[in-house]
Design brief:
single chain; 55% helix
Length: 317
């Protein structure tokens, strides 16, 4: 299906190609390896891979939808660059969860009706600190700013005369581009590659498919999700070649500056490579993203990532 030429995601693809063209001193992309060894590896992984579905932590699929929308307004860095400490959450059974998985588990255990925009908009600082297991002395994880984003987004949706998260989807006819435009206009998903907005849409699509057998319309519009982990797959497999200076910087786990040429080039590689793989494999870029992400987790567990992923203190992804 031809992509809508008015889609902001078409512009993102063009931007990514331009960034890579101008960053040959930062990285070199080997297209023959993308369409050759990487595609073959990903196709083999796809045969073994069980479909990546959203794990249900809620009795209500409506609250799942709301939780994913609100979770993706607050995807700040979950690791403190100075100390190396990660966010941790301990559930009622005493099991510990780290980083974004921990915060999402906290959402699930909170007994908040995330579909109810009025209830979410009225979350107090005290209640939020209880949910996240933070305290005022722990400013490391931007607790108050996360809360402000969640309640602010809820109020934004309510201002459109919508009482529920699922009603928001219905008001936009379950159309990807309509939903994406609304998320952009809210101001809570700011990023030149729209990573968090696209991840929210991708997860909502999976929840709806699980619930009713059909997801959102227009999923082929999405790009791959430009984050920190997928570039690590590419340069560890040699599909993307880095100069020695950047390799050493990543190995030392030095911070990469948000918005820097290095960061933008690494993120742009995800968009460009994802689109190429989509054409080669005949599946949409959101599906390519799932496969690459799951393969990255396997590579990390099997210690096949000799060069670390970039560390960026950012709220973009």
């Amino acid at each position: 299906m031809p992509k809508n030429p008015s889609s902001p995601l078409i512009n993102i693809r063009s931007l990514a190609r331009e960034i890579l063209q101008d960053s040959k001193d930062i990285l070199t992309l080997h297209p023959n390896l993308v369409t050759g060894s990487l595609r073959e590896r990903l196709e083999s992984f796809r045969i073994l891979y069980k479909e990546n579905t959203v794990v249900s932590l809620w009795p209500s699929s409506e609250d799942e939808v709301g939780a994913y929308l609100f979770f993706n307004t607050v995807n700040f860095c979950f690791k403190d660059p100075a100390s190396g400490n990660e966010y941790r959450y301990i559930n009622p059974e005493g099991k510990s969860f780290s980083r974004s998985t921990g915060l999402f588990q906290a959402f699930a255990d909170a007994r908040v009706h995330w579909n109810d925009l009025q209830q979410v908009s009225e979350l107090s600082e005290t209640r939020w600190m209880e949910i996240t297991q933070l305290n005022k002395a722990n400013v490391l994880y931007l607790g108050q700013e996360r809360l402000n984003r969640i309640t602010g987004f809820a109020r934004y949706l309510m201002a459109t005369k919508c009482p529920t998260a699922t009603g928001f989807l219905q008001d936009h006819h379950a159309q990807v581009l309509e939903i994406l435009t609304a998320l952009i206009n809210s101001g809570y998903f700011d990023d030149e590659f729209l990573k968090r907005a696209q991840v929210a849409i991708k997860n909502v699509d999976k929840i709806l498919f699980k619930q009713r057998g059909s997801g959102l319309d227009g999923m082929d519009a999405l790009t791959c999700m430009a984050d920190y982990r997928l570039p690590q797959v590419f340069y560890n497999l040699g599909v993307v070649e880095l100069p020695l200076s950047l390799k050493e910087k990543l190995t030392r786990q030095e911070l990469v500056i948000p918005g820097s040429r290095e960061e933008r080039a690494l993120r742009a590689s995800v968009i460009v490579i994802g689109e190429q793989l989509s054409h080669q494999m005949g599946i949409n870029e959101a599906e390519i993203d799932d496969l690459l992400w799951e393969m990255s987790q396997v590579m990390a567990r099997e210690k096949n990532m000799k060069i670390p992923h970039m560390l960026v203190a950012t709220d973009k992804y």
